[in-house]
Design a protein that fits this description.
CATH class of one domain: Mainly Beta
Number of helices: 1
Helix content: under 10%
Number of strands: 6
Distance between the termini: 50 Å
CATH topology of one domain: OB fold (Dihydrolipoamide Acetyltransferase, E2P)
Structural class: mainly beta
Strand order of the largest sheet: 5-4-1-2-3-6
Low-confidence stretches: 1-15
CATH superfamily of one domain: Copper binding periplasmic protein CusF
Amino acid sequence: MRLPPFLFLLALLTGCGSDAPAVVATYDVRGVYVGPQYNGQAAVIQHEAIPGFMEAMQMTFRLADAASLAEVPVGAKIRFELVVTETSSFIQNIQPLPDSTVLDLEALHPENLHLENPDLEE
């Protein structure tokens, strides 16, 4: 049975009843894994600038999957997808980069250190 075009369009626009917040943007980001935080629910990462979104800095990111960094050593260079929704953000699709990868990381200044994330409980 085919849906009439207007019902199909309505289903697409309403997200088919999903309660998940709408994704506002996604960004491909590179950085260095500094270590786990919040019992492995989050990761501290020193990352390159995200054009049009934020400067290079070290901050805590919530993980979509806590096991995604299980095999990644502290200090490893990584690439990941930052997903920003209407109400929060998280990272996913974490992949190690070759050690020879050159990252454009600015010197850390106190104003670029963000280690707290109100979405997580310690």
